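Lab channel / #folding
Pinned by the channel admin:
"Please post every new chain as: sequence first, then the structure tokens as a reply. Keep commentary short and put observations after the output so the thread stays searchable."

First post following the new format, from NK:
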Amino acid sequence: GLFIVFENPRAIFRIEEMAVELDPYFIGGSLGWHDFLASTARLFKHDPNYRIPVKADPNIVINHIKESHLILRKSLDTFGAIAIGGMYGTLYEDGNPKSFEVSIIGYIKDVITQMKRNLDGFWVAHPNFVRIGIALVEGFARYKDNPKDNSLHELICALVPNPKEQDPLLDFVYGPDVDGLDEEDELYERGV
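Reply from TO:
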């Protein structure tokens, strides 16, 4: 089957059309932030009102890619296809606990955000993230099925034992996703 990377601002509005053309081989697609924002910047390079989000922003997926994720999910639901988000790319320095803490907090936020958006998965930047990612997805699924299940809470507390970091992270995990754009706004498509 074919799995398509929709990391282009024009493609995001043509997902269903492409899926129809690729039938019966189409099985799903993904949308990550890095290439999507880079191609958007190229598209709007002569527009003085466009500003690309800062790549160093650890919350770039949380704050700037929500609508694209929702469009991806909605478009692929029509076909029963797989919808995958992007890749968390901040790796930690081996043997440095503070580096691990910073990296894992961002990774947890990224994974949980994509699960809140009902995506089926995400890419990983390093093999060390695979098992943790699977555990986060499983913990999130258990919590969604039964809000009294503590698996996700226990996992996060084990990964981030620092109480100063734990409380805000848990608030984020159990809180709502960021506000999205208003689909009725005349600038909605531009905002995406």
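NK: The chain has a mean pLDDT of 90.
TO: also worth noting, The longest helix spans residues 97-116.
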